[in-house]
Design brief:
By secondary structure, the chain is α/β, with parallel strands linked by helices. The protein contains 13 helices and eight strands. The model is unreliable at 301-305 (pLDDT under 50).
Length: 305
């Protein structure tokens, strides 16, 4: 029995023209993602632009997400950071609001040693009874959490999963080999999902699912049902959109916000210091989106129904 399910969207934070959080649009987006096949959403992760959100904005986003999903899906709050005490505070507040789980990113900038990571994550886990998912994303944090560290942390009762975005399949295999039984491994890169599941992973914390949840879900379900050839074909079919959402030099969520806007669902542009995707690159992105059956909730008729 998986704690968080198989398809999880790391959801963007919509902003209004004046730069404020657009909570109404956020609620509709989260509801649409659940309708499209998501088991859970991560709120205030990196894709949600957590570094530029205030605490009050974070907490209101958790409330809005819980209201939108009801009993249909789970809400995972991204409460990790480079300050252990602050992560504990955010985790406790999120737990009091009623979220179902917590995402804890590897501390960035101060780059602690591996023993420091263990202490950091153990301290956060002890602060609430909620299940925690670790998040290893060296490209964003400049720090890799090793397989040995993940295995040590998998012994903590409420550290139940890892989102692995290192792209290091030898490391991912070692996590699968050495972590405690029942510890879940999620792909943190859409382009890695099929390969990671072949090593024992259970699913993905996805970005492409903002626009192709249905097709992503179909690929995962085919794999779980043992139809590996169908899953392989679907995975290869999805590679262009996975790549288009992470163009070189344009950090997430710049491209995915543009993709959602281009699909007919207005979510605004990123907050500074991120910027809007250039118009010329949006044209190329649109040509990729046209290759797919986009999720129904994105269409203007569904948005305004």
């Amino acid at each position: 029995m998986l704690t968080f399910g198989r398809l999880i969207t790391a959801v963007i934070t919509p902003f209004a023209d004046d730069g404020s959080v657009d909570y109404e649009t956020f609620g509709r987006l989260v509801s649409g993602l659940v309708d499209a096949g998501n088991d859970a959403v991560v709120v205030t992760g990196t894709t949600g632009e957590s570094p530029v959100l205030t605490d009050d904005e974070r907490f209101q986003l958790y409330r809005e997400a819980l209201s939108a999903v009801g009993d249909r899906a789970q809400v995972i709050a991204g409460t990790g950071g480079y300050n252990t005490a602050e992560s504990v505070h955010l985790s406790r507040e999120a737990a009091d609001i009623g979220v179902h789980g917590l995402l804890q990113v590897t501390p960035y900038y101060n780059k602690p040693p591996q023993d420091g990571l263990v202490l950091h994550f153990e301290t956060i886990a002890e602060a609430t009874p909620l299940p925690n998912m670790l998040y290893n994303v060296p490209a964003r944090t400049s720090l890799n959490m090793t397989a040995d560290t993940v295995a040590r942390l998998s012994a903590v009762d409420n550290i139940v999963a890892v989102k692995e975005a290192s792209g290091d399949f030898d490391q991912i295999a070692e996590i699968a080999r050495t972590a405690e039984d029942g510890f879940d491994i999620y792909s943190g890169n859409d382009s890695d999902t099929y390969l990671l599941m072949a090593l024992g992973g259970v699913g993905v914390v996805s970005v492409q699912s903002h626009v192709v949840s249905g097709e992503t879900r179909d690929m995962i379900d085919a794999f779980v049902e043992g139809d590996l050839e169908t899953a392989r074909q679907k995975h290869l079919h999805l590679l262009p959109i996975a790549r288009a959402l992470f163009p070189a030099g344009w950090p997430n969520p710049i491209a995915v916000k543009a993709a959602v806007n281009l699909s007919g669902f207005s979510v605004g542009v990123p907050r500074s210091p991120l910027i809007e995707f250039p118009a010329a690159m949006q044209e190329d992105l649109k040509s990729v989106l046209d290759l797919y059956e986009l999720d129904a909730f994105l269409q203007p008729a569904a948005v305004h129904a």
